[in-house]
Specification:
Elements: E1 24-26, E2 29-34, E3 40-45, E4 48-50, E5 56-61, H1 66-74, E6 76-81, H2 87-92, E7 112-114, E8 121-123, E9 128-141, E10 144-156, H3 168-174, E11 177-182, E12 185-189
Antiparallel strand pairs: 1-11, 2-3, 2-6, 4-5, 5-10, 6-9, 7-8, 9-10, 11-12
The structure holds flavin mononucleotide.
Flavin mononucleotide binds next to β3, β5, α1 and α2.
């Protein structure tokens, strides 16, 4: 253990992943893919963000998951951003499969809507819906891979869409966002503040 000048700071043991030692803020999305038998598979992902400011989306997934092999086989996936009141969907979608590896039975209870450009479904009641074609898979982050897709269609609930002359704070108060606080907590974000952008900043 390193000695730090500040006694409140301690170094962490890297023999194990560090991420369960503290909380970090992440999004939480539901990635849907098509199983070999034609059924929809849905799985929650929190290591999931836009890839750049362009229309790309990526998430981290282990090759052991059906989500990975389904995308490898079909070349497409969809993303639903659930609302805070849909937190149980994000939990249940991570339920184990039956012993024979067939689809998660609980998914039969999910209300879904069809995607338009790719073969896939969305979870009804979400607020952002992305249709993605596989762009690149980068393997090798230990047992995990980065799956990236090009967004070929996107849909949003009107109550989540920013309107130029409307108050963003009011929009988020009326349509709060779901945040995942890894490892085992979540938050509903309704109270927000404008970011203090530096004058003259360019992206
Ligand atoms: C809240 C939550 C977040 C998760 N985030 C991820 C993630 O970012 N990447 C990942 O590979 N698995 C993640 N998982 C685990 C998978 O979603 C879970 O193992 C799922 O059942 C895999 O399903 P599949 O085999 O149908 O792909 C998460 C699980 C939960 C409950």
């Amino acid at each position: 253990m390193n000695e730090h000048a500040d006694p409140h700071i301690t170094s962490l043991d890297l023999r194990n992943p560090i991420w369960e030692r503290f909380f970090t803020v992440a999004p939480l999305v539901l990635v849907a893919t098509r199983e070999p038998d034609g059924q929809a598979d849905i799985a929650p992902k929190h290591l999931a963000i836009p890839m750049s400011w362009e229309n790309y989306f990526g998430f981290v997934c282990t090759p052991r998951h059906a989500t990975y092999t389904n995308i490898q086989r079909t070349g497409v996936f969809t993303v639903t951003y659930p609302r805070p009141e849909q937190i149980l969907y994000a939990s249940l979608a991570a339920s184990p499969r039956c012993g024979d590896g067939s689809a998660k039975p609980v998914l039969a209870a999910f209300e879904t809507t069809p995607a338009e450009r790719v073969d896939g479904v969305f979870v009804a009641g979400g607020y952002i819906f992305l249709e993605c074609e596989l762009f690149k898979i980068v393997d090798g982050f230990g047992d995990n891979s980065l799956i990236t897709g090009r967004i070929v269609a996107a849909h949003a609930h009107r109550d989540a869409l920013r309107v130029s002359d409307a108050d963003d704070a009011e929009l988020l108060r009326k349509s709060p966002l779901l945040a995942y606080l890894y490892p085992e907590r979540f938050a509903t974000i309704a109270d927000t503040n404008a970011f203090p952008m530096p004058a003259g900043m360019q992206r």
